[in-house]
Design goal:
globular; 15 strands; about 475 residues; about 35% helix; 18 helices; alpha/beta; two-stranded antiparallel sheet
């Protein structure tokens, strides 16, 4: 089958904002729709490729088609006044510098780095900020290779959209693999490193090797797993089957597994359609055949997958192909969140309905989960205590490991769409970790008159400095 796929293999052809008018299917849309798309894509990143256009989108169902919603800009992604401003600039053929300046003003209002990513997740190493990694949870380090800070196509809800809009002061990236190894060696508590972006799979295999091989050669006794976060299995499965270095990529995956380190491929499937094409299934099977474990995750997104039918179908397809359903996330409070968000109560009901329709093999999917400032907050259910309904919550991961797994409760607010909208239930004044988290935030503030070595560093755990 692989030989047949290779004979008919397409070359990657990508389209950005300035290419919208060259896409035949877009040319068929009403002029006002095209103007709005250009206006929105000047503020929020847009990139799509021919495979997504030809294989994943049902153009007869546009604009409601979920894959169209997932990959193309929609007018309601901007607030009405912002949309009007950007449309006027586009219609008037304003200079690019003027369009960019107006977009910057809007972008800075869109909460570009939520949950303390810039202030609390970037550690110090050698007296300076290590801007290419995040270290939020004790056991896991996120690594952002410079060459991996784009994607084969962009999801329109993407919470890392600042990576792709030229906001360099808000971008995470590094080329320094050796520095990463030194950091891992100096932090034996870290058992897992996650390559993320962007998408590491946009890199050629030879480049990816230059990051991974030093880690393998270091033989770090603490490191148990390498993870790769990627949407490529959905948006460009040819990367694993027909690209010129696909075989070398599979060999690299096998080398990781043979070294004794677990390789987890964190695949972002948002809709069952992404896993249905023959090439997509061949790519998934090929990755699994290397010994990697493919774990599947996605946020629940309005207009794309906000139904139990979609999630149950997706989880069944993943299991049938040998992948592991992993997370249903809540889309983060950034970018076009108003367009995609759904109430937390609704998300919980979708999850509960979907999980009840699948076998135990698919019930590995956790959620709905929010990557909020204190950690990954999961909604476990709705409880009724003496006539008061509340959301039952717990932290699956936390800035302080001692918080993990402790049940806590929030008032049942049918309009809340993010953790910060919730208030403690049953007369409590604050959540059990609130006071400690405030102290962490204080200690993460950079004091400009202090030397670098006294500034942002690895945040203290509650058990080390706060609870005492």
């Amino acid at each position: 089958m692989h030989d047949e796929l290779r004979r008919n293999a397409p070359k990657l052809r990508a389209y950005g904002r300035k290419d919208l008018d060259t896409i035949p299917q877009i040319q068929a849309l009403p002029p006002e729709t095209r103007i709005a798309m250009k206006a929105v894509s000047a503020v929020l990143p847009f990139r799509v490729n021919q495979y997504v256009i030809d294989e994943l989108i049902d153009w007869s169902a546009v604009p409601d088609d979920p894959m169209f919603q997932l990959t193309f800009p929609q007018r309601d992604m901007l607030e009405p006044e912002d949309l009007s401003l950007m449309e006027a600039l586009v219609r008037g053929n304003a200079p690019e510098a003027e369009i960019r300046a107006a977009a910057r003003t809007i972008q800075h209002r869109l909460n570009p780095h939520p949950a303390g990513q810039m202030q609390m997740n970037v550690p110090m190493e050698g007296g300076t900020r290590f801007d290419g990694i995040q270290h939020k949870y004790r056991e896991t380090v996120l690594f952002f290779p410079t060459q991996g800070q784009t994607c084969h196509a962009y999801c329109s809800y993407c919470f890392r959209w600042p990576q792709f809009t030229g906001l360099d002061e808000m971008k995470f990236a590094t080329k320094e693999a050796d520095r990463l190894v030194r950091y891992l060696r100096a932090h034996p508590e870290v058992t897992s490193v996650l390559f993320t972006g962007g998408d590491p799979m946009v890199m050629r295999t030879a480049v990816l090797r230059r990051y991974i091989e030093p880690i393998l050669a270091a033989r770090l006794p603490n490191l148990a797993s390498i993870r790769i976060g990627s949407k490529a299995l959905a948006y460009w499965p040819q990367r694993f089957v027909t690209d010129s270095d696909a075989d070398d990529l599979m060999a690299l995956f096998e080398e990781v597994v043979a070294s004794g380190i677990s390789l987890a491929f964190m695949s972002h499937y948002s809709h069952p359609r992404e896993i249905e094409p023959v090439i997509a299934q061949a790519a998934l099977r090929r990755v699994i055949a290397t010994g990697a474990v493919v774990r599947c995750q996605s946020p629940i997104i309005r207009h794309v997958n906000d139904s139990a039918d979609v999630w149950a179908d997706l989880w069944k397809k993943e299991v049938a192909l040998g992948a592991v359903p992993y997370y249903m996330f809540i889309a983060r409070d950034t970018g076009a969140r108003r367009y995609f968000e759904i109430p937390l109560v609704e998300a919980y009901h979708v999850y509960r309905d979907a999980i009840s329709r699948v076998s135990g093999l698919a019930r590995t999917a956790r959620g709905p989960s929010m990557s909020a400032t204190p950690g990954k907050v999961a909604i476990d259910g709705i409880i009724n205590v003496r006539g008061e309904k509340a959301l039952a919550l717990r932290l699956l991961q936390a800035r302080d490991p001692s918080w993990v797994g402790i049940p806590f409760h929030a008032q049942l607010d049918p309009t809340a769409t993010w953790f910060d909208d919730l208030l403690p239930a049953f007369g409590e004044q604050e959540f059990f970790f609130t006071r400690a988290l405030k102290e962490m935030k204080k200690q993460a503030i950079v004091e400009p008159d202090l030397p670098q070595s006294s500034q942002i560093r690895k945040l203290p755990m509650v058990s080390e400095s706060i609870a005492a």
